[in-house]
Amino acid sequence: MEIRPATDKDLDVFVDTLHAAFGRFPETPAEGGGGLWWSALEIDRSLLALAADGRPVGTAGAYSFELTLPGEVIVPAAGVTHVGVLPSHRRQGVLSALMRQQLAELRARGEFLSVLLASEAPIYGRFGYGPATYTQRLTVPRHQAAFALPRAHGTAGGPTAERDTGSVELLRRAECGEILEDVYDRYRRAQPGALSRPHRWWTLGAGQPPVSPAPRHVAVHRDADGIPDGYASYSVDTGTLTVDETIATDDAAFTALARFVLGHDLVTEVVFKHLPPDHPLRWQLADFRAGQVSDDTDWLWVRLLDVPAALTARGWFTDGELVLDVDDPFLGEHSRYLLTVREGKADCVPTDREPDLSMDVSDLASVYLGGTAPSTLVRAAHIRAHHPGAAALADSLFRTDRTPHCLHWF
């Protein structure tokens, strides 16, 4: 078997092989082009696996994204995608060979982390990826959509719905592409766990709504000065209003958009497809049980390729020291690091001190963005704590000021 970089001449072969791996056929481009989920493919970051007779049997690719880390730090991130192996060649080492080659190439490019969305949860842990952000669906019956009266007024936590002096305008998806792109970009720069949506994605209509040109209604929130600061992309079908995503740069804009869709006539329920697990919307409803949670699942998986570079890149909110013993069995590496955090910055250096925690690199990836508490993985027997206070210390160090969340589909 041979693993080699794909070229422009391989585009059709790559796309055909990828679709065949998932039992699908490539779609026909819409009039004017664009709108295909794979249309933003970066062929120069893609790999082909070839059988001994030269036939393509597997694919792997990567997108060039930016990822927002805790502390509003923005770093490059490879978005691993288009991974597939033909059914005739599965369980023969093809996927492992593709993953090994891809990780080597990412390191050669100087990238210290990669991310992906896992089609099946058991697949990628063995390659060093760990789930790092989570999302859930919230369904609210229209007849139970009343909001509670806010009990806190003038709090320091930011504007409340009662103080919202903005407005909501209803547009069609085709009318507001630039607004969506601008609002999302401002949102993702402040939201840990969020990925960039490069301009070419919007231009090509790559991905899922509202990036794709699929018909959607878009409720756009504008602040008191008329500047767009939030949107909700939605569709209505047989009495269900489904919100693809609600993007807002502050809580007041989100609340205004939630009130708008929850007040929609001629629907029986409103479904918010992607909310972080700790989102306050359920608490804002007069009937707490009205918000029915489902599809509570992982979303963004992270892989650390350079542990010191990754740990020193993110922002920190508590001072302290930890010795981390990190095993990376897929790459055959094992290292021990002293992590020292002072005034929001970290130093991470090799050490021979006794460890506070021992962990797989995939578990370090899961706690990296602050979406998974180290103590949870200690209790799950994934991470070994070497003394009673180690888990609590790690929880304090890795905590963030905002729950990481990712909405982007790739």
Automatic annotation (TrEMBL):
It holds the Pfam family SCP2_2. Residues 1-198 form the N-acetyltransferase domain. It comes from the Bacteria. One of its GO terms (biological process) is aminoglycoside antibiotic catabolic process. The active site is at Y124 (proton donor), F410 (proton acceptor). Acetyl-CoA binds at V83, G84, V85, R91, Q92, G93, V94, L95, S96, S119, E120. PANTHER family: N-ACETYLTRANSFERASE EIS. HAMAP family: Eis. Homohexamer; trimer of dimers. Belongs to the acetyltransferase Eis family. This is GNAT family N-acetyltransferase. The lineage of its organism: Bacteria, Bacillati, Actinomycetota, Actinomycetes, Kitasatosporales.
